[in-house]
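Project outcomes to date are best conveyed with an example. Our students and postdoctoral researchers have been running inverse folding experiments weekly, and each run begins with a structure described purely in tokens. The record below, which covers 288 residues, was selected by the lab manager from last quarter's runs and is presented without edits.
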């Protein structure tokens, strides 16, 4: 007997396909079109081939922005992953306080990015900001609008304050999945706190930590709103990351061709590094 195939399910998928086409595929094709062409206006385009890509690869501007972006993402991961794990290990596991701490840890994640930038912009000001005023009162010459080191420190601390909660909550979820029998066996064997963490807790957290690292890398590599609101990419170009440089090129200078090529290269770099992260960590998880 011939099996009949019901194609009515495609009607449920069709709205999603249309939405993805309008929100992702069509804009992407537009960017690709601009990346390989040049225009003098009036919708008259001229084929430019790989010209924009060659110009960007030979430009110190893009490489400097990429270096700043990689440095920022590296610093963020080096701070937030261990700090998030430490916080998760010290969070209460049960009871009322566990619920209270979970709510408090979730609060920074609920604040919009532009509001976070505005909060820290005011917080760090030397005239009315609590942080800037306090540091200067203590004799520390702090001014994130003029000193590149201070600007970097402000942006890094702001990101750590905003996103460490995500790592902590993911690590906490991994810890909650560990059966009590593991801890009971460790107590019977008189295992030290370090050995409990090394051989019981850390292996059980590896899956969620892999997700945390991927999420934080992608978010930090595409960061725009917070540092733009706080420093505007300054002082000078000290905090001009790839996303800020791309927006300046596309909207500030209205160089649509180079900006389109820049965005494609930006996307490929994120995709490549994320794939490397995922492959390496998956292999480590399999070996574990």
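After processing, the design step wrote out the following sequence:
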């Amino acid at each position: 007997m011939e099996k009949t195939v019901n194609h009515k399910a495609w009607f449920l998928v069709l709205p999603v396909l249309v939405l993805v086409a309008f929100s992702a595929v069509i804009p992407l094709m537009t960017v690709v079109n601009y990346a390989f062409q040049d225009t003098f206006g009036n919708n008259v385009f001229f084929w430019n081939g790989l010209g924009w890509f060659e110009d960007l690869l030979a430009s110190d501007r893009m490489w400097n922005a990429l270096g700043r972006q990689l440095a920022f993402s590296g610093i963020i991961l080096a701070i937030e992953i261990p700090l998030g794990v430490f916080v998760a290990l010290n969070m209460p596991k049960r009871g009322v306080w566990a619920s209270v701490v979970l709510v408090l840890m979730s609060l920074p994640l609920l604040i919009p990015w532009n509001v976070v930038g505005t909060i820290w912009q005011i917080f760090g000001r030397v005239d009315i900001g609590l942080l800037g005023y306090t540091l200067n009162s203590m004799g520390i010459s702090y001014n994130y609008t003029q000193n590149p080191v201070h600007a970097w420190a402000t942006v890094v601390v702001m990101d750590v304050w905003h996103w460490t909660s995500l790592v902590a909550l993911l690590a906490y979820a991994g810890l909650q999945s560990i059966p009590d029998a593991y801890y009971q066996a460790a107590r019977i064997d008189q295992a030290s706190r370090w050995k409990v963490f090394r051989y019981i807790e850390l292996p059980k957290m590896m899956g969620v930590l892999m997700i945390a690292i991927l999420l934080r890398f992608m978010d930090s590599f595409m960061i725009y709103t917070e540092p733009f609101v706080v420093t505007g990419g300054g002082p000078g170009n000290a905090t001009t990351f790839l996303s800020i440089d791309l927006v300046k090129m596309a909207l500030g200078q209205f160089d649509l061709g180079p900006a389109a090529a820049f965005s494609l290269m930006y996307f490929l770099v994120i995709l490549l590094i994320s794939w490397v992260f995922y492959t390496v960590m998956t292999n480590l998880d399999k070996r574990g």
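The radius of gyration is 24 Å. The chain has two domains: 16-49, 62-287. The training component of this project remains on track.
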